[in-house]
Write a structure and sequence with these properties.
single chain; alpha+beta; five-stranded mixed β-sheet; 14 helices; 10 strands; 52% helix; 12% strand; binds protoporphyrin IX containing FE
Length: 386
Protein backbone atom coordinates (compact mmCIF):
# COMPACT_ATOMS: atom_id res chain seq x y z
CA UNK A 1 0.00 0.00 0.00
CA UNK A 2 1.16 3.52 -0.78
CA UNK A 3 0.93 5.74 2.31
CA UNK A 4 -0.66 8.68 0.44
CA UNK A 5 -0.99 10.95 3.47
CA UNK A 6 2.36 9.99 5.00
CA UNK A 7 5.23 12.32 5.87
CA UNK A 8 8.02 11.88 3.33
CA UNK A 9 10.36 14.62 4.57
CA UNK A 10 12.90 12.10 5.82
CA UNK A 11 11.83 8.94 3.95
CA UNK A 12 12.93 8.28 0.38
CA UNK A 13 9.70 8.68 -1.64
CA UNK A 14 11.23 7.03 -4.73
CA UNK A 15 11.54 3.66 -3.00
CA UNK A 16 8.00 3.89 -1.57
CA UNK A 17 6.54 4.65 -5.01
CA UNK A 18 8.48 1.85 -6.70
CA UNK A 19 7.43 -0.67 -4.02
CA UNK A 20 3.79 0.39 -4.21
CA UNK A 21 3.36 -0.21 -7.93
CA UNK A 22 4.88 -3.68 -7.63
CA UNK A 23 2.74 -4.67 -4.67
CA UNK A 24 -0.61 -3.12 -5.39
CA UNK A 25 -1.85 -1.75 -8.73
CA UNK A 26 -4.98 -0.09 -7.25
CA UNK A 27 -5.90 1.23 -3.86
CA UNK A 28 -8.83 2.99 -2.26
CA UNK A 29 -8.38 5.97 0.03
CA UNK A 30 -11.42 7.06 1.96
CA UNK A 31 -10.68 10.73 2.59
CA UNK A 32 -11.00 12.27 -0.87
CA UNK A 33 -13.37 9.61 -2.08
CA UNK A 34 -11.35 8.39 -5.03
CA UNK A 35 -9.41 5.20 -5.65
CA UNK A 36 -5.83 5.31 -6.94
CA UNK A 37 -4.55 3.72 -10.15
CA UNK A 38 -0.84 3.03 -9.87
CA UNK A 39 0.22 1.03 -12.95
CA UNK A 40 1.70 2.70 -16.05
CA UNK A 41 -0.70 0.97 -18.47
CA UNK A 42 -3.81 2.08 -16.52
CA UNK A 43 -2.58 5.61 -15.92
CA UNK A 44 -1.69 6.13 -19.60
CA UNK A 45 -4.97 4.61 -20.78
CA UNK A 46 -7.03 6.85 -18.48
CA UNK A 47 -5.05 10.02 -19.30
CA UNK A 48 -5.84 9.54 -22.97
CA UNK A 49 -9.38 8.25 -22.54
CA UNK A 50 -12.61 10.17 -23.09
CA UNK A 51 -14.27 8.30 -20.19
CA UNK A 52 -12.82 10.66 -17.59
CA UNK A 53 -12.19 14.39 -17.50
CA UNK A 54 -10.44 17.03 -15.44
CA UNK A 55 -13.25 19.38 -14.57
CA UNK A 56 -13.70 19.14 -10.82
CA UNK A 57 -17.03 17.85 -9.60
CA UNK A 58 -18.62 18.72 -6.24
CA UNK A 59 -16.19 18.27 -3.38
CA UNK A 60 -17.75 16.00 -0.78
CA UNK A 61 -15.30 17.26 1.83
CA UNK A 62 -17.13 20.65 1.86
CA UNK A 63 -19.86 19.08 3.98
CA UNK A 64 -17.45 18.92 6.91
CA UNK A 65 -16.57 22.66 6.79
CA UNK A 66 -18.21 25.68 8.42
CA UNK A 67 -20.23 27.97 6.13
CA UNK A 68 -17.40 30.53 6.02
CA UNK A 69 -14.71 27.94 5.26
CA UNK A 70 -16.86 26.20 2.62
CA UNK A 71 -17.38 29.60 0.92
CA UNK A 72 -13.61 30.27 0.88
CA UNK A 73 -12.93 26.82 -0.56
CA UNK A 74 -15.61 27.35 -3.22
CA UNK A 75 -14.07 30.73 -4.13
CA UNK A 76 -10.65 29.11 -4.65
CA UNK A 77 -12.22 26.29 -6.62
CA UNK A 78 -13.95 28.80 -8.90
CA UNK A 79 -10.60 30.46 -9.60
CA UNK A 80 -8.94 27.09 -10.29
CA UNK A 81 -11.74 26.18 -12.72
CA UNK A 82 -10.23 28.77 -15.11
CA UNK A 83 -6.91 26.92 -15.19
CA UNK A 84 -6.48 24.90 -18.39
CA UNK A 85 -5.40 21.87 -16.39
CA UNK A 86 -8.62 21.77 -14.37
CA UNK A 87 -10.98 22.47 -17.27
CA UNK A 88 -12.47 20.57 -20.17
CA UNK A 89 -14.66 20.84 -23.26
CA UNK A 90 -14.72 23.96 -25.40
CA UNK A 91 -13.24 26.23 -22.69
CA UNK A 92 -10.21 23.95 -22.32
CA UNK A 93 -9.59 23.79 -26.07
CA UNK A 94 -9.69 27.57 -26.34
CA UNK A 95 -7.60 28.12 -23.17
CA UNK A 96 -5.01 25.61 -24.33
CA UNK A 97 -4.62 27.32 -27.70
CA UNK A 98 -4.16 30.61 -25.85
CA UNK A 99 -1.59 29.17 -23.45
CA UNK A 100 0.39 27.66 -26.34
CA UNK A 101 0.36 31.12 -27.99
CA UNK A 102 1.50 32.76 -24.74
CA UNK A 103 4.44 30.36 -24.48
CA UNK A 104 5.50 30.68 -28.12
CA UNK A 105 8.97 32.23 -28.37
CA UNK A 106 9.87 31.72 -24.70
CA UNK A 107 12.57 29.10 -25.40
CA UNK A 108 15.34 31.42 -26.52
CA UNK A 109 19.13 31.28 -26.90
CA UNK A 110 19.20 34.02 -24.22
CA UNK A 111 17.52 31.68 -21.71
CA UNK A 112 20.03 28.92 -22.45
CA UNK A 113 22.92 31.41 -22.23
CA UNK A 114 21.70 32.82 -18.88
CA UNK A 115 21.29 29.31 -17.40
CA UNK A 116 24.66 28.16 -18.74
CA UNK A 117 26.41 31.20 -17.25
CA UNK A 118 24.78 30.47 -13.89
CA UNK A 119 25.82 26.80 -14.04
CA UNK A 120 29.39 27.60 -15.05
CA UNK A 121 29.73 29.96 -12.08
CA UNK A 122 28.27 27.44 -9.60
CA UNK A 123 30.20 24.48 -11.02
CA UNK A 124 33.41 26.42 -10.49
CA UNK A 125 32.92 25.91 -6.72
CA UNK A 126 36.00 24.04 -5.48
CA UNK A 127 35.61 20.26 -5.28
CA UNK A 128 34.72 19.18 -1.74
CA UNK A 129 33.37 22.58 -0.61
CA UNK A 130 29.86 22.13 0.84
CA UNK A 131 26.89 24.11 -0.55
CA UNK A 132 23.14 23.80 -0.98
CA UNK A 133 22.31 22.73 -4.55
CA UNK A 134 18.70 23.82 -4.08
CA UNK A 135 19.67 27.40 -3.12
CA UNK A 136 22.68 27.78 -5.39
CA UNK A 137 21.64 25.92 -8.53
CA UNK A 138 18.01 24.80 -8.72
CA UNK A 139 16.14 27.86 -7.40
CA UNK A 140 18.19 30.50 -9.28
CA UNK A 141 17.64 28.51 -12.50
CA UNK A 142 13.92 28.24 -11.81
CA UNK A 143 13.90 32.03 -11.33
CA UNK A 144 15.66 32.47 -14.70
CA UNK A 145 12.87 30.49 -16.33
CA UNK A 146 10.17 32.58 -14.66
CA UNK A 147 12.08 35.77 -15.55
CA UNK A 148 11.78 34.90 -19.26
CA UNK A 149 8.00 34.86 -18.74
CA UNK A 150 7.35 37.82 -16.44
CA UNK A 151 10.61 39.80 -16.35
CA UNK A 152 13.46 39.82 -13.89
CA UNK A 153 12.20 42.61 -11.62
CA UNK A 154 9.18 40.76 -10.21
CA UNK A 155 10.06 37.10 -10.83
CA UNK A 156 10.93 36.34 -7.18
CA UNK A 157 7.78 38.03 -5.86
CA UNK A 158 5.50 36.20 -8.29
CA UNK A 159 7.17 32.88 -7.47
CA UNK A 160 6.51 33.51 -3.76
CA UNK A 161 2.85 34.31 -4.45
CA UNK A 162 2.25 31.35 -6.71
CA UNK A 163 4.01 29.19 -4.08
CA UNK A 164 1.08 29.89 -1.75
CA UNK A 165 -1.29 28.43 -4.36
CA UNK A 166 1.02 25.46 -4.86
CA UNK A 167 1.08 24.81 -1.09
CA UNK A 168 -2.70 24.45 -1.14
CA UNK A 169 -2.70 22.22 -4.21
CA UNK A 170 0.07 19.98 -2.88
CA UNK A 171 -1.59 19.44 0.50
CA UNK A 172 -3.09 16.00 0.96
CA UNK A 173 -5.83 17.35 3.30
CA UNK A 174 -8.13 20.39 3.13
CA UNK A 175 -6.48 23.10 5.24
CA UNK A 176 -8.34 26.37 5.65
CA UNK A 177 -5.20 28.37 6.54
CA UNK A 178 -3.63 27.27 3.24
CA UNK A 179 -6.85 28.14 1.37
CA UNK A 180 -6.94 31.65 2.89
CA UNK A 181 -3.28 32.17 2.11
CA UNK A 182 -3.76 31.01 -1.50
CA UNK A 183 -6.72 33.37 -2.00
CA UNK A 184 -4.73 36.34 -0.69
CA UNK A 185 -1.91 35.46 -3.09
CA UNK A 186 -4.33 35.23 -6.02
CA UNK A 187 -5.58 38.73 -5.20
CA UNK A 188 -2.03 40.07 -5.28
CA UNK A 189 -1.27 38.27 -8.55
CA UNK A 190 -4.37 39.84 -10.07
CA UNK A 191 -3.29 43.34 -8.94
CA UNK A 192 0.20 42.76 -10.32
CA UNK A 193 -1.11 41.75 -13.74
CA UNK A 194 -3.57 44.62 -13.83
CA UNK A 195 -0.70 47.09 -13.40
CA UNK A 196 1.97 45.21 -15.41
CA UNK A 197 -0.19 44.94 -18.53
CA UNK A 198 0.06 48.73 -18.96
CA UNK A 199 3.85 48.57 -19.30
CA UNK A 200 4.53 44.89 -20.04
CA UNK A 201 8.05 43.73 -19.13
CA UNK A 202 7.99 40.81 -21.61
CA UNK A 203 6.04 39.68 -24.70
CA UNK A 204 4.43 37.00 -22.49
CA UNK A 205 2.94 39.65 -20.18
CA UNK A 206 1.91 41.78 -23.17
CA UNK A 207 -0.03 38.80 -24.55
CA UNK A 208 -1.55 38.13 -21.12
CA UNK A 209 -2.69 41.77 -21.08
CA UNK A 210 -4.64 41.07 -24.26
CA UNK A 211 -6.28 38.08 -22.57
CA UNK A 212 -7.26 40.40 -19.67
CA UNK A 213 -8.88 42.84 -22.13
CA UNK A 214 -10.51 40.13 -24.26
CA UNK A 215 -14.27 40.02 -23.49
CA UNK A 216 -14.20 36.26 -24.10
CA UNK A 217 -11.77 35.91 -21.17
CA UNK A 218 -11.23 38.88 -18.80
CA UNK A 219 -9.22 39.43 -15.57
CA UNK A 220 -10.10 36.14 -13.85
CA UNK A 221 -8.90 33.77 -16.63
CA UNK A 222 -5.88 36.02 -17.35
CA UNK A 223 -4.84 35.81 -13.67
CA UNK A 224 -5.56 32.07 -13.71
CA UNK A 225 -3.27 31.53 -16.75
CA UNK A 226 -0.51 33.59 -15.11
CA UNK A 227 -0.83 31.68 -11.82
CA UNK A 228 -0.98 28.25 -13.42
CA UNK A 229 2.05 28.91 -15.54
CA UNK A 230 4.24 30.20 -12.71
CA UNK A 231 3.06 27.45 -10.35
CA UNK A 232 3.33 24.84 -13.09
CA UNK A 233 6.78 26.00 -14.17
CA UNK A 234 8.81 26.99 -11.11
CA UNK A 235 8.32 24.19 -8.61
CA UNK A 236 8.54 21.16 -10.90
CA UNK A 237 11.50 22.52 -12.85
CA UNK A 238 13.34 23.32 -9.61
CA UNK A 239 12.59 19.76 -8.47
CA UNK A 240 13.91 18.22 -11.70
CA UNK A 241 17.12 20.25 -11.31
CA UNK A 242 17.44 18.92 -7.74
CA UNK A 243 16.98 15.36 -9.00
CA UNK A 244 19.95 15.96 -11.32
CA UNK A 245 21.98 16.93 -8.22
CA UNK A 246 20.73 14.08 -6.05
CA UNK A 247 20.73 11.20 -8.51
CA UNK A 248 23.01 11.73 -11.52
CA UNK A 249 26.24 9.95 -10.61
CA UNK A 250 29.65 10.00 -12.32
CA UNK A 251 29.24 6.80 -14.30
CA UNK A 252 25.94 7.68 -15.95
CA UNK A 253 27.12 11.25 -16.62
CA UNK A 254 30.07 9.86 -18.57
CA UNK A 255 28.27 6.94 -20.23
CA UNK A 256 24.90 8.36 -21.30
CA UNK A 257 23.98 11.14 -23.70
CA UNK A 258 22.45 14.35 -22.40
CA UNK A 259 19.12 13.48 -24.03
CA UNK A 260 18.95 10.05 -22.37
CA UNK A 261 19.91 11.54 -19.00
CA UNK A 262 17.35 14.32 -19.35
CA UNK A 263 14.48 11.91 -20.00
CA UNK A 264 15.55 9.65 -17.14
CA UNK A 265 15.74 12.62 -14.78
CA UNK A 266 12.18 13.65 -15.63
CA UNK A 267 10.96 10.05 -15.31
CA UNK A 268 12.47 9.67 -11.85
CA UNK A 269 11.54 13.16 -10.67
CA UNK A 270 7.85 13.13 -11.68
CA UNK A 271 7.40 16.36 -9.68
CA UNK A 272 3.59 16.21 -9.88
CA UNK A 273 2.81 12.72 -8.72
CA UNK A 274 -0.95 12.59 -9.25
CA UNK A 275 -3.33 13.70 -11.97
CA UNK A 276 -6.94 13.84 -10.85
CA UNK A 277 -9.78 12.86 -13.14
CA UNK A 278 -13.56 12.45 -12.76
CA UNK A 279 -15.71 9.76 -14.38
CA UNK A 280 -18.07 11.03 -17.07
CA UNK A 281 -20.31 7.99 -16.69
CA UNK A 282 -20.36 4.68 -14.81
CA UNK A 283 -17.16 2.78 -15.38
CA UNK A 284 -14.76 0.33 -13.77
CA UNK A 285 -11.12 0.83 -12.88
CA UNK A 286 -9.57 -2.44 -11.73
CA UNK A 287 -11.73 -3.69 -8.86
CA UNK A 288 -13.42 -0.29 -8.36
CA UNK A 289 -16.74 0.86 -9.74
CA UNK A 290 -17.02 4.62 -10.45
CA UNK A 291 -20.28 6.50 -11.00
CA UNK A 292 -20.48 9.77 -12.99
CA UNK A 293 -18.49 12.56 -11.23
CA UNK A 294 -16.59 10.12 -9.01
CA UNK A 295 -12.93 10.96 -8.61
CA UNK A 296 -10.00 8.79 -9.67
CA UNK A 297 -6.38 9.58 -8.80
CA UNK A 298 -3.91 8.66 -11.52
CA UNK A 299 -0.50 8.14 -9.98
CA UNK A 300 2.09 9.43 -12.45
CA UNK A 301 4.76 8.95 -9.77
CA UNK A 302 4.25 5.17 -9.54
CA UNK A 303 3.51 4.72 -13.26
CA UNK A 304 6.96 6.07 -14.09
CA UNK A 305 8.51 3.49 -11.76
CA UNK A 306 6.44 0.54 -12.99
CA UNK A 307 8.88 -2.34 -13.61
CA UNK A 308 6.54 -3.69 -16.29
CA UNK A 309 7.67 -0.73 -18.42
CA UNK A 310 10.93 0.25 -16.74
CA UNK A 311 12.91 -2.72 -15.39
CA UNK A 312 15.03 -1.72 -12.37
CA UNK A 313 13.01 1.48 -12.30
CA UNK A 314 15.22 3.39 -9.86
CA UNK A 315 18.27 3.05 -12.10
CA UNK A 316 19.23 5.71 -14.62
CA UNK A 317 19.97 3.96 -17.90
CA UNK A 318 19.31 4.14 -21.64
CA UNK A 319 15.70 3.05 -22.26
CA UNK A 320 13.88 3.02 -25.56
CA UNK A 321 10.64 4.09 -23.90
CA UNK A 322 11.91 6.81 -21.53
CA UNK A 323 10.29 9.59 -23.59
CA UNK A 324 6.92 7.85 -23.05
CA UNK A 325 7.16 8.45 -19.32
CA UNK A 326 4.24 10.38 -17.87
CA UNK A 327 5.97 13.24 -16.00
CA UNK A 328 4.37 15.79 -18.33
CA UNK A 329 1.08 13.91 -18.51
CA UNK A 330 -0.41 12.56 -21.75
CA UNK A 331 -3.34 13.28 -24.01
CA UNK A 332 -5.16 16.58 -24.31
CA UNK A 333 -3.70 18.10 -21.12
CA UNK A 334 -0.08 17.21 -22.04
CA UNK A 335 2.16 19.90 -20.57
CA UNK A 336 2.71 22.78 -23.02
CA UNK A 337 5.74 23.90 -20.95
CA UNK A 338 7.64 20.62 -21.42
CA UNK A 339 10.05 22.15 -23.94
CA UNK A 340 10.95 24.97 -21.55
CA UNK A 341 11.58 22.57 -18.67
CA UNK A 342 13.56 20.17 -20.88
CA UNK A 343 15.68 23.05 -22.17
CA UNK A 344 16.93 24.17 -18.76
CA UNK A 345 17.53 20.64 -17.45
CA UNK A 346 19.44 19.84 -20.64
CA UNK A 347 21.55 22.99 -20.20
CA UNK A 348 22.49 21.83 -16.67
CA UNK A 349 23.43 18.32 -17.83
CA UNK A 350 25.50 19.77 -20.67
CA UNK A 351 27.37 22.01 -18.20
CA UNK A 352 27.99 19.06 -15.83
CA UNK A 353 29.37 17.00 -18.70
CA UNK A 354 31.59 19.86 -19.78
CA UNK A 355 32.88 20.48 -16.24
CA UNK A 356 33.15 16.69 -15.65
CA UNK A 357 31.78 16.97 -12.11
CA UNK A 358 28.75 15.60 -10.30
CA UNK A 359 27.10 16.60 -7.02
CA UNK A 360 27.53 14.32 -4.05
CA UNK A 361 24.40 14.89 -1.92
CA UNK A 362 25.11 14.43 1.77
CA UNK A 363 22.00 15.94 3.37
CA UNK A 364 18.55 15.83 1.73
CA UNK A 365 15.31 17.27 3.12
CA UNK A 366 12.02 17.26 1.23
CA UNK A 367 8.60 18.73 1.81
CA UNK A 368 6.54 16.07 3.61
CA UNK A 369 3.62 15.63 1.23
CA UNK A 370 3.50 12.90 -1.39
CA UNK A 371 1.45 14.63 -4.16
CA UNK A 372 4.31 16.91 -5.24
CA UNK A 373 8.05 16.38 -4.89
CA UNK A 374 9.67 19.51 -3.52
CA UNK A 375 13.03 19.82 -1.82
CA UNK A 376 13.84 21.88 1.29
CA UNK A 377 17.58 21.28 1.38
CA UNK A 378 20.11 19.48 -0.77
CA UNK A 379 23.53 19.96 0.78
CA UNK A 380 26.66 18.33 -0.54
CA UNK A 381 29.69 19.06 -2.67
CA UNK A 382 31.02 18.61 -6.16
CA UNK A 383 33.18 15.61 -6.94
CA UNK A 384 35.14 14.88 -10.12
CA UNK A 385 33.30 12.56 -12.55
CA UNK A 386 36.54 11.03 -13.78
C1 LIG B 1 9.41 19.81 -14.80
C2 LIG B 1 8.54 20.67 -15.25
C3 LIG B 1 7.08 20.39 -15.46
C4 LIG B 1 6.35 19.28 -15.15
C5 LIG B 1 6.81 17.98 -14.50
C6 LIG B 1 4.99 19.53 -15.59
C7 LIG B 1 3.95 18.62 -15.47
C8 LIG B 1 2.70 18.79 -16.01
C9 LIG B 1 1.66 17.79 -16.04
C10 LIG B 1 1.78 16.38 -15.44
C11 LIG B 1 0.59 18.32 -16.67
C12 LIG B 1 -0.74 17.60 -16.98
C13 LIG B 1 -1.61 17.49 -15.76
C14 LIG B 1 -2.86 16.69 -16.02
O1 LIG B 1 -3.01 16.02 -17.06
O2 LIG B 1 -3.75 16.71 -15.15
C15 LIG B 1 0.93 19.68 -17.02
C16 LIG B 1 0.08 20.56 -17.63
C17 LIG B 1 0.39 21.87 -17.81
N1 LIG B 1 1.62 22.48 -17.62
FE1 LIG B 1 3.30 21.62 -16.98
N2 LIG B 1 4.93 20.78 -16.12
C18 LIG B 1 6.19 21.34 -16.07
C19 LIG B 1 6.57 22.56 -16.54
C20 LIG B 1 5.72 23.50 -17.04
C21 LIG B 1 6.09 24.80 -17.53
C22 LIG B 1 7.54 25.29 -17.64
C23 LIG B 1 4.93 25.43 -17.89
C24 LIG B 1 4.73 26.80 -18.47
C25 LIG B 1 5.56 27.79 -18.38
C26 LIG B 1 3.83 24.50 -17.66
C27 LIG B 1 2.49 24.77 -17.91
C28 LIG B 1 1.51 23.81 -17.94
C29 LIG B 1 0.13 24.08 -18.35
C30 LIG B 1 -0.44 25.43 -18.79
C31 LIG B 1 -0.56 22.86 -18.27
C32 LIG B 1 -2.05 22.61 -18.58
C33 LIG B 1 -2.22 22.10 -19.98
C34 LIG B 1 -3.64 21.70 -20.28
O3 LIG B 1 -4.42 21.44 -19.38
O4 LIG B 1 -3.97 21.64 -21.47
N3 LIG B 1 4.34 23.36 -17.15
N4 LIG B 1 2.23 19.94 -16.63
Amino acid sequence: MLDVFGDYSARDPFAALADAVQGCPYQAVAENGGPYALRAADVRRLLTSGDVWSQRSADRRLAGLSERDAARRTELKRFLSHWPVFSDSEYHQRARRTVVRLLRGTVTPELVAACTELFETRLATPVGKSFDWLEEVARPTGRELIATLVGRADAARLIRLSGAVMDELAAAHLDIALIDHALEAVEELRSWLEAARNDPPTPFVAKLGKVWDDPAYGPEPATAFLTQMITGAYDPTTTALCVVGERVGAQVLLDLSVTVLREEVFRLATPFRFATRYARQSMSVGPYRLEADDRINLCLGTANLDPAEYPDPLEIRARENAARALSFGAGKHYCPGALLARTVVEALLTSLKKAQVVFDAEHVEREPELPALRYRKLRGSLVPAV
